[in-house]
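so my prof wants the structure for this chain in the tokens format not the other one, which i didnt know existed until like an hour ago. anyway here's the sequence
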Amino acid sequence: MPALPSLSLVPLQMPRTATLVVLAGADAATAASLPEAMRSHVARAAAAYKFKGKSLAVMDLLAPEGIGPDRILVIGLDADKPLAEEDWLKLGGAVAGRVKGAGAVTVWLDRAAGSVGAAEAAWFAQGLQMRSYSFDTYKSVKGEDESDAQADSVSLALADPDAARGQLGTAAAVADGVALARDLVNEPANVLGPVEFADRLTELSKQGVEVEVLTEAEMRALGMNALLGVAQGSPRPPRLVVMRWNGGEGDAAPVAFIGKGVVFDTGGVSIKPAAGMEDMKGDMGGAAAVSGLMLALAGRKARVNAIGIVGLVENAVDGNAQRPGDIVKAMSGTTIEVNNTDAEGRLVLADALWYCQDRFKPRFMINLATLTGAIIVALGNHHAGLFSNDDELSERLAAAGRVTGEKVWRMPLGPEYDKLIEGKFADIKNVGAGRAAGSITAAQFLQRFVNKVAWAHLDIAGTAMGSPANEYNQSWGSGFGVRLLDRLVTDHYETR
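here's what i got, hopefully its the right format
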């Protein structure tokens, strides 16, 4: 990933940078803090081009001689409605996309409707940082568009820059977590196996995260046969990584996040079709999101005790691979018929969830997984599926999704679906009957291993990779879940 542009906060003074970004409200109205000559120039141009200041509309102008900058980039705010967090993210991302190769840039964060506050400035900066992300590690030749992928530096001019510094640091820490999640999803599987993934997570100790890595032998001693069964067809050994951020009160129960980390999924003996199988390097999007979240919490010094657990395996095919019809005993003691080896993520999560609730007694558990194609059939690529045994946790997640733009949609659970995973030869089976309710039966399976702890399952198959690009994300691996869960923690679970 190329270096991001440096960000700084400065007062509202005419810059020496060649490019100035100006915010325009309704009818292209600009901030009174701008020099009158510049406001007049923008107004005349807006009239000529019929520019009305609609949301994210852009007018790119040469500045008149002697006015200060050489270029004035005017971007619309759609000031007829209040701007929420995601609106500012999109605004920051749109600016980042327009100032590629511009060198030093100043953004005049003031508007006709009033001053831009610290929170809005932080969200703008976060959107700019996330849009500036690119993954070109393995490109030996950079094209013209890639060599000037972003500006060298961006100065945010504010009425009160000092008030925004703390929030800017917090926003940057969360953006760093998103970037880590994107990096992990974008890496090829030949580079990022279970051991390599675990090694990367040990680097979080530099940020104050306690990292513990369980080996195959340690998991076998704990009875994690559901997880180990998935891994047995690969020569690359599995790992379970436990990350702890202790930012809250010492005796406070932690919040817990668990991620599916299948670094590559062939489908096992129930092998997937060849077309599109290369995307299965992203089948660890849940583990990536948990990893990014833990970095974000540590980076912003969140006042919470948090646990992150990721089960890391490769679902491969060889003579030792798990077969359809095999029966395994999970750590909980539940026996499972493995009727489809491509329904492997729930087996990994079964042991990780049970281990988490048994060892850490968390306040709640939220697992994230690229679990089922059925959730894409149901919701497409704009919502993650939400399943939960707790109404309050579910409502809080939905509210966090509406604020951040990482939206979730609650799906049903119920005993009528539970019957679909009853086993013929063991306690349960890992798939339902036929294709009906595939995402729901997967969630019913997971619920067997939460032991009455408040729990939510996020099926992010449609949102973690290959989701539609937008103003602040142009990456195949989106980092979905990091901002959603950080917002959940911020709003409800930190020590005040």
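also thought this was worth mentioning. The first helix runs from residue 36 to 49.
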